[in-house]
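Quick one: structure tokens for this chain, please?
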Amino acid sequence: MLSPGNLSGALRRVEANRGAPGVDGMTTEQLRPWLREHWAGIREALDAGTYRPSPVRRVVIPKPGGGQRLLGVPTVLDRLIQQAIAQVLTPIFDPHFSGASFGFRPGKSAHQAVRVARRCIEDGLRWVVDVDLDRFFDRVQFDVLMARVARKVGDRKVLRLIRAYLEAGVMVDGVRQATVEGTPQGSPLSPILSNIMLDDLDRELWKRGHRFVRFADDVRVFVRSRRAAQRVLDSVTTVVEQRLKLKVNTEKSSVRHASQAMLLGFGFFFTRSGVRVRVDPTAVKRLKDRIRVLTSRSWSVSMPCRIDKLNQYITGWMAYFRLADTPKVFKGLDEWFRRRMRQIRWKEWKRPATKHRNLRRLGIPERSAREWAMSGRGYWRIACSPVLARALPNVYWDDLGLKGLYPTWHRFKTTA
């Protein structure tokens, strides 16, 4: 864990990930100079087993579906040490994890999980068991987790150090609060520890011959009938609560037909040519909410700046959702999106004389340009008018560098 090569790799990873400072306020840019002066003492404390991690800084973020997610931001020094531990644990544990586990693993991705789920549905397993682990990261019992880590790790100093991170506590409003359960979500150690904890569930499902997909604490089991799905949900609940000492949220766990099931922001639909992938409607709603913010008429920024921000968001969103087979949906979103852009441009022109001059410059006949320039209709209504659609067509926005959802999706599909 403390070898120069492993530590150098961990330091580069922490610097690349950046992130906010912990309770001590030190940034990732300040870490390397600080280590040159203080690392010898830290290394000595780690060797002696006397190093004590700092508490994490509590951060509360809203969940997309409601509620709150509690994150802990460790100090950059603790992120370095945790990353060094994770880099050593991964080659020990990861090769033995189930092939149906896709979350936070080298060479695994959410897209792979969705493709496996689609294959299960294509094979006739059209009932999906959605197992929701209630506050998984906050409920993991330390003894249960450490027993599973100790199955493959014999170094007591490393085990004590991992335990120290679990028990480091959180800083809330300047007061340190002890932690008695839960993994440090938001830290480099959290992903590997969560996979170690849930590996027993994977093994049990595999032993029973089930087809399933797990991404961190997102679990989906695929079966052929509704009755079988209900039996599986009951049996999985027993394993989770009795063996892993966790809790299944019975209100959010469900049995659904594949056409209604969602996984990692994706859903599924059936066509004559087979099972296809679509975007979860809640993800589309979040997309539209974000675009509304970026295309707000009250946001006073230049058009190049606005387009730059929109392009960044659309490219990132479509890079993830490029797996969807719904070009018509993306074309429809583009129509709505460009209408919002047209109303921004219409507001920017402000005065009737400016509107008239710009409409004429963009090829609108004199009579129509004068009529629409003097119109008292609202921005949103004008944005849908034939005259503005003709004055500001798709090619106009293409020339300004604006990226649409459908063209971005098509580019990702053709280059995949």
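Residues 327-349 form the longest helix (23 residues).
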